[in-house]
Amino acid sequence: MKRIAVLTSGGDAPGMNAAIRAVVRTGISKGWEVFGIRQGYAGCMTGDIIPLGARDVGGIIQQGGTILGSARCPAFTTEDGRRQAIRALRQHNIEGLVVIGGNGSQTGSYELHKMGFPVVGVASTIDNDLYGSEITIGVDTALNIALEAIDRLKVTASSHQRAFLIEVMGRHCGYLALMAGIAGGAEAIVIPEAELPPDKVADEIQEAYERGKKHGIVVVAEGARYNAEKLEAYFKENEEQLGFDLRVTKLGHVQRGGEPLAFDRILATRIGAGAVHALERGETGKLAGLNNGDITLTPLDEVVANKKSLNPELIELAGILAK
Length: 323
Ligand code: ADP
Known about the structure:
There is one protein chain. The chain is α/β, with parallel strands linked by helices. The chain has two domains: about 5-140 and about 260-305, Rossmann fold; about 140-255, 3-Layer(aba) Sandwich (Rossmann fold), CATH 3.40.50. The chain has twelve helices and eleven strands. A seven-stranded mixed beta sheet has the order 3-2-1-4-5-10-11, sandwiched between helices. The radius of gyration is 22 Å and the shape is elongated.
């Protein structure tokens, strides 16, 4: 292999730049030419491909977001769209592709693989909902941002005997909310994997106050059925009877843009380099990720066919420690 390309796709995650840097410099160390594709699969289809040298990726390891830009590209989900992308890659004599992204993006790379193009995925999403990597690039930084918000809200909550609800991202996966709740010492955690109806959330806070706690912190995953809106409405309706009110903070995209912390920089560097080694060995159609401390390659058909589940022990632990 002599010419490879790298793209970032889907939701941006802190550490994507560190992964780009690792792909570029590992490729160069093998004597290859490395190219960057702008705006994810959209740039792949239009041939928006630029050469990337070692200096072009200097000073980016500490930057959030992605220097290549990312996009959601519905046209790529069609076979015609993917044919166009493969044509553009071949026109640029690109022999292998590294796709840095989450679930949707890796479904896209699996489709490219099935059409015969050599591709390796890099597990990157703050949601941690990607099968094939115990933890994905961006999760740790996003978690720390959520945690900082929880710690601050706890201080205010303790001063006012006021309950606070913090909604964190994660799409349909409760990982971020669960871990933020455990690390932040939340009184109640509401996630799609363990739903808690509004009256039970109110009970948890009420009981916490009765046990002498000064604060009531509820962490809710954006994908939960009893989401922030529903919980807020319930607490508003029953405020008088409950004797306390609930204030809602939605962290939203604030969680995405942070500068990657050490864990994500190192994880992204290792997985990015691992993806290039895999291309060299011809181990394509796989997702590079982290499992049991090692960089592993999981076939993309397994990645798209499986759903990552939350460890039930962690859910139980959160319940015990909230008391
Ligand atoms: P993420 O990778 O963060 O989960 P998305 O779900 O938005 O982000 O997916 C990113 C892009 O991946 C989509 O805009 C689309 O171009 C591509 N993609 C998603 N699903 C498929 C699919 N089933 N087939 C081909 N490409 C897909």
